[in-house]
Amino acid sequence: MIYNIEKIGEIKLVREIGEGGMGVVYEGYDTSLDRKVAVKFMLPNTLTAVGKKRFLKEASAMAKINHPGIINVYSYGETEIEGKRIPYFVMEFIEGKSLQDVINRIKILKENSPKELKEFGYLDEVVNGYDNYFLQNFNNLPLKDSKWLDNSLSLISSVSDALYEMHNIGIIHRDIKPSNILISRKGVRLADFGLVKFSSSNSITTQENFLGTIKYTAPEIFSKGKPTVKSDMYSLGVVFYELLTATHPFEYLSSESPGYIVNSIIKGDVKPPDELNDSIPKSVSKIVMKMLSKNPDERYETMKDVSEAIRSHRKSGGINRIITNIRDIFSDETEKDQNISETDKEISNEYLNKAVKSYISINFSESIGYIKEALYLNPFNLDNYIVYMIIKTHGFCFAKKIEANIKLLKDNRKRFINERDNEKLEIIIRNLEDDKKWIDYALNYSKKYTEPLIYQLIARSSSKYAEEYYRKLLEFDDFKNFANVVLLMHQTKNSEEFVKKCIELKKENNENNFLLDIMLTEHYLWEVFNLDKAREEIDELEKKFPYQEGVIDYRHRLEVIEKRYEQAITTVQRLIGVSEEDYKFKGYYELYLLYSRLNENEKALKYLNIAKNMTDETVLTISEIDNITKNIDIEQFDLINKSLLKLAYSVFQKNFIDHLIESATLWFFKVNLKMFVVESSGECLMAYITSGSSARIDFIPLGNFYDIDGNLLKTRYNKVSDNDFYVEITNNKKYDNNFYSSAIFIGSKPDALTKKNDDTYLFSYTENINGARIAIRIFAIDKSFKIVSSDLVNAKEFDTNEYKIIMVFVDTLSNYSKKDFNVHLELKKMK
Q1: Whole-number Cα distances in Å, 526 to 164, 325, 574, 816, 825
Q2: Which of 230, 266, 367, 378 has its Cα between 20 and 30 A from that of 251?
Q3: Using CA atoms, how far apart are residues 627 and 166, in angstroms rounded to an integer?
């Protein structure tokens, strides 16, 4: 082993498993989480200041990406080995092989007689039951097999999707090659993000490991030297070519110099792959050649264009559909379970159909009842879980018995023998275990299979994809009217037009009138913040549907917004009466919070005890939440002044505790704080603290999110519009699934501060606060600056030893309206 180290934190290092240009990888075992991991350390000969910074920057970038085609990074940092600080990161351990292993085996089969290879012991016996096509030990050349082509297309399409996700947040991989594409039972993963780069011009002829990288490098890199989206695309094109033909597009002998290889790439004379393998369709060959265009401008614009071109071929060719249908035909027989009769399966499907119809009629409680009946008869009917997951997106149900079936599904994975059911099972398990990656698996599934329930689940769960997937639902009779009504929200240009169209449809006595009423209510409540109109809609709904769970819930939320807590108590008691048994404890917990807000502590305690007795979930008192959330480990935060962060967090935490009932009741409500720190050097740092596991921000920040213990949190940024990003934050298990979790961003906001002249600076910041918020904004100005002018009003000002503090509170909950927040400070540097 390169490093003499046996353990890092809770991770035991088992063995060295690989080495690259900048790093060495060890297999490890995380004793605290009981899982295998891979740990990558920088190599001793790369330990420069620049090298360390680059290594940790790439690790940070990888940690921010959530995609099923990209290897997970759990944590990163530095550790001391033999007196040196060595950067490392801990990542997912992939059980499987690299694409390079697959290609090497195919090349051996191509160049030698399989019979002789087997005779001399170079080929293993065929092992059945592999979980991924490429994991099998090929004993015959498969290049002309339609399954090889189809699985190759699927693999490259998946890698293209993963690269598109990276490129979308500004990361270029720089080192796409077969050894960095890992294949496991669960699919394909990209690894080693940008860690092998051009270190210097003379390193080409001295680093053996770099020869492999040269073979997959785009021609423009050798002249311009700047990696781009198009250079990643070219590299994947080389991999694609090699996978389809078992031949590199630029044949060369191992004795050839790197200069010869580079010249071949720059000349760009490539034979189309269908000339080497006549089973490759012309349309596929054209895709490969476009990716390998010598001129970057002649390649596809994005990796999404590549994956769509591949999928377009697969769809028109029907290859994937034929194979899937064949698998489904055979799986019907092999999937039978003697413990579930055909009659039970049939009745279970009938209940499923009723559940779908009840859902479309917005009768969630009835739908859940049907789902429970269906699963009682057949707990392996996966579509029942999908319907349940859809209903959960509305926030009205929690069925403990259904969610407890996760273990049953996991224990019976083997019964789901076809690829389609296996992929659907993965979506279900990840969703019910609150793994935010489930949406990526669902999106991937929806591109391969046509299923309206999956479309509805995606549309309900992601505003980014809602319109696209509701349009897909128009093709299905059961969902057509439903989708048409919902699409009103996406097709209308403004609030007035939306309301007008809804009212016109209602006058036509549309069968979806109830849904139209719901949409108008939500529009007034969450979109345009018109409480009077919302109240009118809720009044009308209650006359028609007095016992409908969702309608009562709207009333309850409206009363909390308006601070009519006595009325809210009565409404919650009504809500408890119509709720599913597993969901009632949440209602009793809200009664505890409401009575606490009214200082009726005896009644509050009564309902707290009822909530605790109705569930085995953790139910905390306000005092316990206060103690947990105030216990920030300030010493773990090194990138910003600790005294300032302590001050900011204490202000945030107090306001959070003061608004617990809103946080527990209103899914859209947040307490958040932004602190801008102008240092004496002119650097502008930023801290952003928010409650819950999501956030809306106006820029992709330069930094990371942490929990209050200083642990790095994974984040995923979804662009809503210009200057509007939705951030999903994956909390650590200690705080997960609790509305009282909080996340702290530490980073910089360099564009907020500009230098006017030698001693004058301008600080400018603008944001749109588009929801119900308690928003605290703090501006900490180093005392080496004098504040010449400020346009802030109603601000609280005070001094610390080092900083002038300006604090502003923006309450968009009380007046329930959106707000544009602008600040301009002119600062003069003191001599």
Answers
A1: 32, 44, 23, 10, 33
A2: 230
A3: 39
Distance CA 435, CA 728 (A): 11
Q: Which tokens hold the place of 361?
A: 């009629």
SS (H, E, C) 375-417: HHHCCCCHHHHHHHHHHHCCCCCCCHHHHCHHHHHHHCHHHCC
Q: Which residues of 94-121 are buried (b: 16+ CB within 10 A; e: fewer)?
A: bebbbbbbbbebbebbeeeebeeeeeee
Note every long-range contact of 207-210, with CB atoms under 8 Å and residues 24 or more positions apart, other chains counting: 207/21, 209/19, 209/20, 209/21, 210/21
Calpha distance 698→721 (Å, rounded): 9
CATH 1.10.510.10 for domain 97-317, yes or no, is: yes
Measured CA to CA, the distance from residue 593 to residue 608 in angstroms comes to 8
pLDDT band at 732 (very low <50, low <70, confident <90, very high): low
Place of tokens 């707290």: 608
pLDDT digits (tens, 9 = 90+) for 243-283: 999 999 987 545 566 777 788 888 888 999 999 999 999 99
Q: Where are the domains of the chain?
A: 7-93, 97-317, 628-829
Task: DSSP for 714-748, please give it.
Answer: EEEEEEEETTEEEEEEE--TTTTT-TT-EEEEEEE
pLDDT of residue 312: 77
Task: Centre a 10 Å sphere on the Cβ of residue 301 and count the other Cβ atoms it contains.
Answer: 11
| CATH no. of 628-829 | 2.60.40
636's enclosing H/E stretch is none
- Tens-place pLDDT, residues 540-566: 888 887 777 888 889 999 999 999 999
Give start and end residues of each alpha helix (H) in 6-145.
Answer: 49-63, 99-111, 114-119
Q: What is the pLDDT of residues 367-400, one digit of tens each?
A: 888 888 888 888 999 999 999 999 888 866 566 6
Higher-confidence residue: 468 or 495?
Answer: 468
CB 353 within 8 A of CB 361: no
68's tokens = 């099923």
> Which pLDDT belongs to residue 734?
55
Q: Could you please report the per-residue DSSP string of 17-47?
A: EEE-SSEEEEEEEETTTTEEEEEEEE-GGG-
The domain made up of 7-93 is a member of CATH 3.20.20.70: no
> Sheet of 181-184: strands edge to edge?
96-98, 181-184, 187-190
Helices (H) and strands (E) in the chain, counts: 32, 23
Q: What are the tokens at 588?
A: 């009793």
E strand or H helix at 459, and its extent?
Answer: helix 452-461
